[in-house]
Amino acid sequence: MATAxxxxxxxxxxxxxxxxxxxxxxxxxxxxxxxxxxxTSHVVNIAIPVPAAHKGTELGRTIAAETLxxxxxxxxRKGTRGRLDDATTYSVDGSRKLRTLRAVTNAVxxxxxxxxxxxxxxxxxxxxxxxxxxxxxxxxAADPYNALQSSLxxxxxxxxxxxxxxxxxxxxxxxPAQEGKRLALAVGIKHGMGARTEGDADLFTVxxxxxxxxxxxxxxxxxxxxxxxxxxxxxAADxRQHVRITNDGPAEIIPTRQALxxxxxxxxxxxxxxxxxxxxxxxxxxxxxxxxxxxxxxRPATPDDVFPTPTERPTDAELTGEIDAExxxxxxETFQAVADGSALPVRADMIQPGMDVIHAHMDExxxxxxxxxxxxxxxxxxxxxxTFRSHDESTTGSTFPPEMHLMVTRASLDTVFGPAxxxxxxxxxxxxxxxxxxxxxxxxxxxxxxxxxEPTNAALAxxxxxxxxxxxxxxxxxxxxxxxxxxxxxxxxxxFAAHAAREAAEKATDLAxxxxxxLVNHLEALPLAAPPARHxxxxxxxxxxxxxxxxxxxxxxxxxxxxxxxxxxxxIVRARxxxxxxxxxxxxxHGTDMPAxxxxxxxxxxxxxxxxxxxxERSAIVTGTPKVLVRCASDSGTGGNVTAEITAGVDxxxxxxxxxxxxxxxxxxxxxxxxxxxxxxxxIGRRFLVGVPVEYTDHRP
Length: 701
Prior knowledge:
Largest sheet: 5 strands, antiparallel
Shape: extended
Oligomer: single chain
Strand order of the largest sheet: 1-2-3-4-5
Structural class: alpha+beta
Number of strands: 25
């Protein structure tokens, strides 16, 4: 196949890329090279070709005056790089210096668009060709690239996204999506390298077949995504879903927030990063390979995804099979989980991947990863394979006969089959008003003692042991109903409630009674945002802080004040440790923990201001406008550094109500001519992946 003649080059990578782009736009390029003893210089002149219809006219002289002159130099010694010493654009109005390579690239791109526009305007109309008194020569075959470039230039590419596929023979594979902002420039470079491009802004192809130096015999197809109309709004953040595939197994659907949390943890959290062998991620798509052998692929779910309908949950009788009373009693005596109802004996031929099986002697659970069944000839058997946990354990389980029982937790059964259906209970006898008030009194005592755990018989007996007349166990079901009805609302955003409590602990270090009392109030409310296992420690920290607060108030002489201050310092240390035990991330505000949607910001602001906030603030949070506020300030010294305080919150007539402690970033200015706000936007503006407005303000500390 005949190849095009080699175009003159400079041997400098950046310069040759600009030449390729200019030739792709059909601009006139001349190179004047001078070789010296220690330096080689290249004077590159780029001009717009004047159409024949405009030659000799005022417009033609204007077009001819638009040129770009570049001076590239490169030392002759080995291993040196070339540099751009001068770049000047000329026009009929004068000349202008270009300071950066980006500005030069934009100038070439602008000249190429202008050249295409002049060529379109000078092209003869059909009626002009028909009525022309001179013979018309047949036009050469038009390059489809010009039509494609015109379509891309006319289309709005600010928010366009293109899905890309690669075709090689009969095989078609997907490629990462590309934004359309600078796609016209990329297409021009590809065309300059020899690829054939054709189509329009909605659908076009880049054909690399037969191109030397290309990626191979491949055809890339770019298809523009259709924009979302007002009739079909984009789903809210809580409604979006992701596809999660583990070890090339079946695809499962999970909430987008859960997928993003896994991606952020694998990228940012040190304890999780240590378990990742390698990872590649782009926006909300990720491929994670863990050191324990798991390979996880995450991507956004599409309307074309089809997921298998979950099978109907078997009944307990179907899972257990025939079991006599003596064997059931043996299982209840051997396994505490079977005795309290949190586990169920399941036949070996009914087990499935994902079930958690309890070990009889080690009192631990292992998760089934796969199940192998053998039906004959000979005796049938079932062998489970466990999920990998460490190199010291085997993942291969024992071989069981089909009728043997394995103790499976009910929580894992709910995960595999879905929640068990609630059976209709027999109608209970009506409860009179006096008995209901009596049960509510005991329920109020339960919550007053901050017993937010499970109200078991033992827990109820321990709470009511010191009452004048403890209730009998026959009344416990009625008291449990009252406890459920009087359950206080849990914290909507536990992390931000912990942040507020941690800040109260830091402010209490001034040992003022008011600051310590504020810490006591935070510790009083924090169990609503903590798991039951942490409640005892939080109550102990609250009691210690409350005792120190009372000692500070009552201290009148120097020894008493010294002892009270020492007790307060110890109480603050205990409170800080209890708070961080509930939410370890509350030690400082992380960027990955910042709420991203309007609902998340409102929930975080309510939790952050739950203690100490006024009713007007809570009302303003509900009715205000969520946004992210970035306060920017230059340092007071040289002014070369910028400090940005980032806070998500709610904008209201009361001001900006924060939802979390501020995130403080300090970085060097990229442009000393601009103020701190503009430099902050250029440095961190693209990092915000939030669904609310972001406002930058100049702030003088």
